[in-house]
């Protein structure tokens, strides 16, 4: 046992009580961790991150939830991803809302990456248009 845990259980004399106390300590930490990860997912925004960095961040949070025993299905992960996209991505979000077939995370990555590249291309073209 770590020193922190040992301090909490030194007065316990029976093995069953010890295991119950340890399980209780770690389950409350686990619930708190799960809640914090869910909050982080709800607050995640793409912002200035690359598409790859944003998706990796969301996936790492989803992996942490899975490791804590609360895995998300792909639809939930996709919902978190879409919720964190800026207004310039809303045409894509609207188009996805009209699909009859669900999109995979990999296909969503491709779609968001493509839109991101097109946005960058048009911003670049707009900046150089006066110099031609």
Automatic annotation (TrEMBL):
Cross-referenced Pfam families: Retrotran_gag_2
Protein name per the record: Retrotransposon gag domain-containing protein
């Amino acid at each position: 046992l770590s020193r922190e845990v040992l301090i909490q259980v030194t007065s316990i004399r029976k093995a069953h009580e010890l295991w119950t106390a340890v399980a209780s300590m770690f389950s409350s930490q686990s619930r708190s961790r799960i809640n914090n990860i869910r909050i982080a997912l709800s607050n995640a925004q793409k912002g200035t991150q690359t598409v790859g960095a944003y998706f990796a961040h969301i996936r790492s949070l989803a992996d942490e939830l899975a490791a804590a025993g609360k895995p998300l299905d792909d639809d939930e992960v996709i919902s978190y991803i879409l919720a964190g996209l800026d207004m310039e991505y809303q045409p894509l979000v609207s188009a996805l809302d009209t699909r009859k077939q669900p999109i995979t995370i990999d296909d969503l990555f491709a779609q968001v990456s493509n839109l991101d590249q097109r946005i960058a291309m048009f911003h670049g073209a707009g900046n150089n248009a006066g110099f031609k």
